[in-house]
Amino acid sequence: MISRTVLHAVISAATVCTIGALPATVAAEQFPDQPVRMVIPYPPGGALSVTGAVIATAAEAHLGQPMVSLIRAGGGGAVGATFVAKSRADGYTLLLGDPSINVIRPVLEDLPYTADEFVPIARFTHSPFVFVANKDAPFKSMKELVAYAKDNPGKVVYSSDNINGWTYTAFEILKREADINMRGVEFDGGGPAVTNVLGGNTLAYAGVPSVVQDYIASGTLTALCVSDTERYANLPDVPTCVEQGVDIKWGAWIGLFAPAKTPEDRVQRLRTAFNALAEDDGFKALMKRINADLNYLDQPAFSEMLSADSKAVKN
Amino acid sequence: MFDTIIHAISELGYWAVLSALGGLVLGVIVGAVPGLTASIAVAILLPLTFFLPATVGIGFLLGVYKGAVYAGSIPAILINTPGTPAAAATAMDGFAMTQQGKAKKALHMALFSSLFGDLFATIVLLSVAAPLAAIAIQFSAPEYAVLFLASLVLIATVSAGDSLKGVLSAIAGALVGCIGLDSLTVAQRFVFDVPELLGGVPLVPLIVGMFALSEVLIQITSPLSEASAQISRTVGPPLQRKEALKCLPTLFRSTSIGTFIGALPGLGAEIACWVAYGIAKQRSKNPQEFGKGSLEGIAAAESGANATVPATLIPMLIFGIPGDVVTAVLIGAFIAQGVTPGPLLFTNHASLVYGLFALLVFTNIALIFVGLLSIRSFSWVVRIPSSVMMPAVVVIAVAGAYSIGSDPYDVVIMLIGGVLGYAMRINGVPIPPFIIAVLLAPQFEKMLRQSLSLSNGDFTIFVSRPISASLLAGFVLFILLLVGKAAWSKRRAALPL
After folding, report:
1. What was the pLDDT predicted at B149?
2. Domain A130-249 sits in which CATH superfamily?
3. What is the pTM (predicted TM-score) of this model?
4. Residue-wise pLDDT tens digits, B82-135
């Protein structure tokens, strides 16, 4: 009935494979002496993964070892972050993080990791947010949006990404600063959020320039203001939010983190490598090509920024 | 405009054409290996394209995409292991045909349907992309909610035989689909403090396990009789022209479905194959054949799935919105070239776009030869005796599951899927409703909640929006037809002779 040979063959093959699939132990003499993994906590295709791909490709020259992107998407970034937080703190597993994963959500939510489980290495990009509106919306500037929202509390519907995400936080700050009442619909990601404001299902959205600037240029979306201390270089006609009467100076960034218990000398080695990378002309050119706003912050400054942000969120 | 096109084609050069062809071949290899999917391949190959000229790099990725979606049907047919989730529906009838000694016919049908679907959708892309995209952009959560609900109900009808078991299967799938971190409320569902489960149950290892591993388990416990085993080891005669032509209406219908689904942002081949299959079964003159080796079934599944490939490029090129995971990565490829897909694409980079269109047509034609070659290369697999085949399938399944992200978690899911699939099969519980529900139920829920969020809790949003209202009306009509048909055939059966 059951052929013994088949049964035995199958069981042995299965056992061999499953054991072989378990991770091997690592013994490092000179760091790094094997490829370094950079975990990308979002599904492929988003701003983070493209920037991550550029960093990974260019980093090899400075690290001496290839850098491999590992995508661990899910839970809005929580899966990837938890993976790195709980991984072996040997400097070979890094996280490409952002404000949502590393600052805001650990404070506000009950996640399987905390912000303290990471040590920052460097910040690569920093982009302000551009608030935009659908071209047929009843407001054409931030001032008009605020006025309209005050006259029609609860009627303005805007596209949001996910709770405590980039866009969500931008609008929370706006609502608090301008003291207005608006409704956000969480579309679980920047892509659907943009689609919906383009299609007129929602009236407004806030995104980084690389995402929205083409729509602004072609007129399909109206730019309201940019949340920075000065006007954005590629969008000189867009006023800052402060100019429009709303004090919002918050932006999104992408940075590299390691598990907190990583030995100090390895952290410093990584720091040196990435400092050199940031000066690399080839890297700078690539970053420009993908419209990533390279704004490098070395570790001490980055740590400072993080703790300041974290305090701000707690309030 | 025509001179721009001619100019763009002449600009292409040897490298772009060669790289598209190379991508196609690589894609076929990737697709034929269970566990490796188009999305993984494209994501890994993305950085390579940074330093290549745009037509070469992106043409390469497009070739990989196309090849992978087609080639998933090969292991689906030969060893009941879909090479990509898009080929899961093909495995239903494809493997049945292999067991009947008709593997070659099945493989030919899969190739023919893929070519048909791909060509049709490419023509749509080239001709009516802009108006189609303008309609697609108006689709928001309410429309998607109705579509997903309709698909869920439709797939419940796909299961042969006992519909109660089909519904049970779908409910189980819906519950499994809920596992994970709910993004709208950050509530953790069914996670049980296992961090890996925060991201939910991944579809690819689940499918590999439920199809391939369950098959191995079934073969161990109730192997085919010697006679049946003999039959299943022959490839059989090739596809006859008559048989292919008979499936033309199905092909047209399924291709249209696939094109439509692909053009909607966010939906891809893994949904289209089932919806096309389900509707084909509804409209077929021989619905009872579906699942037992129906050429129509293969035709529907493959043409529906492959039509989504060019179709997902529509929202990507016109609006810069990804149609599925692969197009999301393709957008990254464009951005890395300094080109942003979206409204300015045709104005600023017309020659790139037309060059890529030409490459799409070229790869469609090239697929004929690459496909035939791959069929010839893989057909000998059926002649392998099961005592060698089954362990090999186990190895492939484990390796494939691990290759996704070098994560043992995926292997565990695959193993669990195998046991679950086995348990379902020996109890006559159909697998398709489970898989569809895992895929669609959480999406339906998300769209429902987003719709209510948009309308501030008002349920009438589904009927006040014109598109969603018409979709809903169509759905209700469809249900009425279904019920009517069932009642009618009951009446006829009850009539005295």
Report:
1. 86
2. Periplasmic binding protein-like II (3.40.190.10)
3. 0.81
4. 888 899 899 989 999 988 888 899 999 999 999 999 999 999 888 887 787 778
Q: What ipTM does the predicted assembly reach?
A: 0.75
Q: Which of B:102-131 have CB within 8 Å of A?
A: none
| Cβ–Cβ gap A220/B137 under 8 Å | no
Cβ atoms B181, A74 nearer than 8 A: yes
User: Is the Cβ pair B343, A186 closer than 8 Å?
Assistant: no
Q: Is A1 helix (H, G, I), strand (E, B) or coil?
A: coil
Mutant choice from B182, B183, B313, B412 vs A, greatest count of A C-beta within 10 A: B183
Q: What is the pLDDT of residue B160?
A: 54
Q: Where are the beta strands (DSSP E) in B172-312?
A: 180-181, 188-189
Q: Cα–Cα distance between A90 and A95 in angstroms, integer?
A: 13
- Domains of chain A, by residue range, sit at 30-126+252-314, 130-249
Lookup: tokens for A193: 């959020």
* DSSP-based three-state secondary structure for A254: strand
Residue A76 and residue B319: Cβ atoms within 8 Å?
Answer: no
- In three-state secondary structure terms, B82 is coil
Cβ contacts of residue B111 below 8 Å, gap of 6+? Answer: B70, B73, B367, B368, B371, B372, B375
Question: Which residue in B199, B321, B394 is closest to A195 by CB distance?
Answer: B321
pLDDT in tens, A227-244: 888 888 888 888 888 888
A30-126+252-314, CATH topology level = D-Maltodextrin-Binding Protein; domain 2 (3.40.190)
User: Scanning every residue of chain A, which has its alpha carbon at the shortest distance from the alpha carbon of B341?
Assistant: A214
Residue B455 contacts A, CB cutoff 8 Å: no
| Per-residue pLDDT reduced to its tens digit, A197-214 | 888 889 999 988 877 888
Name the minimum distance, in Å, from the CA of A132 to any CA of chain B. Answer: 16
Distance CA B364, CA B120 (A): 10
Q: Identify the bridge partners of residue A184 per DSSP, sorted by sequence position.
A: A158
The label of the residue with tokens 């867009």 reads A238
How sure is the predictor about A133, in pLDDT bands with cuts at 50, 70 and 90? very high
Domains A30-126+252-314 and A130-249 share a fold: yes
Task: Please report the number of interchain residue pairs, chain A to chain B, with beta-carbon separation below 8 angstroms.
Answer: 200
CA distance, residue A245 to nearest chain B CA (Å): 28
With CB atoms and an 8 Å threshold, state whether B391 touches A157.
no
Average pLDDT, chain A: 83
Task: Count CA atoms closer than 13 A to A35's CA, side-chain side.
Answer: 10
- Ranges of beta strands (E only) in chain A are 36-40, 67-71, 93-97, 118-128, 130-134, 157-160, 183-186, 204-207, 221-226, 251-259, 294-297
Which of A39, A187, A203 is best to mutate for the B interface (most B CBs within 10 A)? A187
Residue A71 has pLDDT above 90, yes or no: no
Q: Do B321 and A56 touch (CB under 8 A)?
A: no
Segments of chain B with pLDDT less than 70: 1-2, 4, 156-162, 183-184, 186, 195, 224, 323, 497
State how far the Cα of A106 lies from the Cα of A81, in Å rounded to an integer: 11
